Amino acid sequence: IGAGHVGATAALAAAQAGVDEIVLLDVVEGVPQGKALDMMQSGAVHGFSGRIVGTNDYAEVCGAEVAIVTAGLPRKPGMSRDDLVTANANIIRTVSAKLAEHAPDCVIIMVTNPLDVMAYVAMKETGFPRQRVLGMAGVLDSARFRTFVALELDTDVRQVSAMVLGGHGDSMVPLVRLATVGGVPLTELVAQDRLERIVQRTRTGGGEIVKLLGTGSAYYAPGAAAFRMAEFLLFGRRTVLPASVWTEGEYGIRDTFVGLPVELGPGGLERIIEIELTDDELAALKKSADAVRSVIDRL
């Protein structure tokens, strides 16, 4: 839902992974239709044959299993994710009502910023259980963390294992203590001052791209991250990854969306995994959750 750069990138990733039926929906006439046709033609080059429909009509999403929601206004230079809250909340309310009507059994993967707050709006508007409303942030933030570590060490990013928890904003919590490179603890490989800089760059990674682009925000990594979550739901596989979920007391946090380690399965959230955190890590996670809750309260 949303045929801008993020939505189109996610749709193309889905097509290349072998998803048979994809709908690209947007309110702007012609844009989703043109992008869908272009993508289908690229299948002759890339070697995929799925059907991609571009539309402005929610009737086309009838029976969808997964809805990746990217519709909304992007950040501009100098804006925080929270600056978008009122305008995008109105958009997400409309999108959510349409999804509840036409795809009442779908799992929603929220990408629109501020992501954790928009996941809350979607859950409230649809009435879906928390198992079927997820925020994408953890996969993206962890990818940024892993990338910056790989750049620091000039190593293969596939050798880097790392996880970022918390809200999708400046209060996110990269778990430095648990990060490894080829199985070796990151803290054994990078000096403390450099680690602190990597953590800060991870927290502001989206803003760095917004500033560089000048007229847009990131889309390759967010689109790929969104489909990374969707593929496990679509192909019936289970995985453990960080995702923004509605809390009911886990980690001592209640009544907000925040990024936590979860097990995903075909129906969405299967369980939240409560790993042992240090006092400082837990305090940072709760502080991040409080920051999200404060925006929800204002909304």
Question: In a nutshell, what does this entry contain?
Answer:
This protein is of the alpha/beta class. Helix content is 44%, strand content 19%.
Write out key terms for the chains shown.
three-stranded parallel β-sheet; 299 residues; three-stranded antiparallel β-sheet; alpha/beta
Describe this structure in words.
The protein is α/β, with parallel strands linked by helices and 299 residues long. The strands form five sheets. The chain has a three-stranded parallel β-sheet, sandwiched between helices. Strand 4, helix 4 and strand 5 form a beta-alpha-beta unit. Helix 1 runs parallel beside helix 2 and helix 5 crosses helix 8. It is globular and about 50 Å long.
Task: Give the proportion of residues in helices.
Answer: 40-55%
Low-confidence stretches: none
Major β-sheet profile? 3 strands, parallel
Rounded to the nearest angstrom, the distance between the terminal CA atoms is 22 Å
Alpha-beta classification: alpha/beta
DSSP helical segment count: 9
Quaternary organization: single chain
Give the overall pLDDT as a whole number: 95
- Total strands: the figure is 13
Shape: globular
Strand order of the largest sheet: 3-4-5
Radius of gyration from the alpha-carbon trace, in angstroms: 19 Å
Per DSSP, what share of the residues sits in E-state strands of 2 or more residues?
Answer: 15-25%
